[in-house]
Amino acid sequence: MNDRRNQIVVVTGAGGSGCGRAIANRFARDGAAVVVSDINDAGGHETVRLIEREGGRAVFQRADVRDEREARELVAFGERTFGRVTILVNNASAPFRPGEPLEHWTDTVHTDLLGSMFCTRAAIDAMRRAGGGAIVNIASISALWHGRGTPGGAPAFDVAKAGLIRLTTTLASLATTDHIRVNCLAPGWIATDGPRQYWESLTPAERLERGVPSRLLTTDQIADAVVRLATDTSLAGRVLVWWSEDSPRLIRWGDRGYAEYDDCPIPFEWR
Q1: Per-residue pLDDT tens for 219-264?
Q2: How confident is the model at residue 1 (pLDDT cuts 50, 70, 90)?
Q3: Given Cys at both, which of 17, 134, 212, 219 links 22, Cβ 3.0 to 4.6 Å?
C-alpha cells in the first residue's frame, strides 16, 4: 500500500455506488484523509462508513457544487477539519439523459462544468496556502468525438466534458507557478448501474452494431487512474484517455485535436 497519510483529498459526487465512492475508498486505503461530498446525504454517510470500517479516515460534507458558495465552503471545511486540502477530484455529475437532448442542459452544465470550475477555484486558493496540490477532472470520451458513427450522446454532457478537458490543459502552468498539477481522465463506458444494465441487455452482435464496447471499465480501474494522475509529479495539464477496450493513454501535449481531415471542395483564395 502506498502511504498517503499527508494527503487531504476532497472527492465530489462520492455519495453514490459508482466512481466517486471507489475513488474515495482508494485514497483512504492508501492512507489519505478524505472529505466525501455529495447532495445525497445518506449515500455520503454510507461512503464514510465503508471507509471507516476498513480503518480509513473520512468525513462527509454536503455540497451542491452548482452553488459557488457551497463549493467554497466544501474546500474550507476540508481545511478546517484536516488543516489543508492537497487533492481535489471533480467527479460530481448530473444524471445522464441521452433521450432528452435539449432538456435539463442547465443542470448538466452547472454540475459538470461550472461546479468543477467553482471547486477548482476554491481548491487553488487552498492549495496555494498548503504549498501545492493536485486536481483531477473527470471528463469522458464523448467529449473527443467529432461526430458520431452511431446514434446517441447528450449534447450538454458532451459540452461540459469537453470544457473540463480544456480547463485542464489551460491550467497546466499552475504546476510551474504554484506547484498545483491539474490533470484529467476521459474514460469510456464504466460498469456503473445504468451502463452495465444496458450493456448486459445486448448480445455481442448488438453491441458491435450499436458501437457499444465489448467490455466495460470497472470503478476500481477508474480509481487507480485517478490516483495515478493525482500523485504522478511528472504529469500536469495532461488528459488520460481510456477507451473501454484498450489501455489508458495520454493525449500528446500540444495535440491539435484531429488526426485526419477531409478535403474541402470549396476553392479558397488566401488574401
Answers
A1: 999 999 999 999 999 999 999 999 888 889 999 998 887 777 777 7
A2: very low
A3: 219
Q: Cβ(83)–Cβ(128) under 8 Å?
A: no
In this structure, the strands spanning 239-242 and 33-38 are unpaired
35: β partners: 10, 59
- Over residues 8-31, the mean pLDDT reads 97
Residues in a beta bridge with 249: 241
What percent of the chain has pLDDT above 90?
A: 69
pLDDT of residue 103 exceeding 90? no
136, 87 Cβ separation under 8 angstroms = yes
Please state the length of the chain. 271
Contacts of 80 (CB under 8 A, 6+ apart): none
Rg (CA), the chain: 19
* The three-state (H, E, C) secondary structure of the chain, written as one string: CCCCCCCEEEECCCCCCCHHHHHHHHHHHCCCEEEEEECCHHHHHHHHHHHHHCCCEEEEEECCCCCHHHHHHHHHHHHHHHCCCCEEEECCCCCCCCCCCCCCHHHHHHHHHHHHHHHHHHHHHHHHHHCCEEEEEECCHHHCCCCCCCCCCCHHHHHHHHHHHHHHHHCCCHHHHCCEEEEEEEECCECCHHHHHHHHCCCHHHHHHHCCCCCCECHHHHHHHHHHHHHCCCCCCCEEEECCCCCCEECCCCCCCCCCCCCCCCCCCCC
CA distance 21 to 142: 22
